[in-house]
Amino acid sequence: MDLARREHAAWRAGDARLAAKEDLALARRILAGYQPRDRAQAEERERMLAFIDEHPTDAHRRTLLVGHLTASALLVDRARGAALLTHHRKLDRWLQLGGHCDGDANLVGVALRECVEESGIADLAIDPTPLDLDIHVIPARKDEPEHLHLDTRFVVFAPPGARAVASDESHELRWVHPHELGELASDASVRRLFDLAFA
User: Options 3.40.50.410, 3.90.79.10, 3.40.50.2000, 3.20.10.10; which CATH number does 3-198 get?
Assistant: First the structure.
């Protein structure tokens, strides 16, 4: 992937194209426009589009207990040659930043908003072209049943020398170089994001 080209095309906070939208037609357009790199990604896209069609008013709301759309991003600092990961407090794993749409169908805007909130870095920019799709199971907890997260993943860029501050959702934040990823308790989908971004 050409990170420099993606960063050049990135949208910055305040861009009108990042404004929240309730209409799920926008999420559907973003997913329909995604060009899958392989059969597995094509299948994920079709499952996500079908999910929106099955839940046309609430696929992007966490009140839909069977599952819901989410958006996340690998937050990259090209000058460091690293990406920022969170040691997620609830899931106890190292993950990319991201979270629930909470009624916002603008998946690009959701991913950027979540990165700002979880990293404490205000001056971020997002490539609006999805990098990856991932549907995964979130285990049951005392206040919610097992459910699906249908996650659209992007690349977000930090300015050089950015200082991250962990939110209450994280045990810790860490800038991770690709060769260090194997030392952390992450999962295959995080490793896939690193492979896509840093290949």
Answer: 3.90.79.10
- Inter-CA distances, 194 with 27, 66, 176, 182, Å: 24, 29, 10, 11
Q: How far apart are CA 174 and CA 185, in angstroms?
A: 13
pTM above 0.90, yes or no: yes
Pure H helices in the chain: 3-8, 24-32, 39-54, 107-119, 188-198
Paired tokens of 180: 């260090």
Q: Residue 196 burial (CB < 10 Å; 0-12/13-18/19+)?
A: middle
Each domain of the chain, given as residue ranges in start order, spans 3-198
Eight-state DSSP code of residue 158: P
10-residue stretch averages of pLDDT, the chain, 199 residues long: 86 94 97 97 98 98 96 94 90 90 98 96 95 94 91 96 85 93 89 93
DSSP secondary structure code for residue 37 in this structure: S
Q: What Rg, from alpha-carbon coordinates, does the chain have?
A: 16
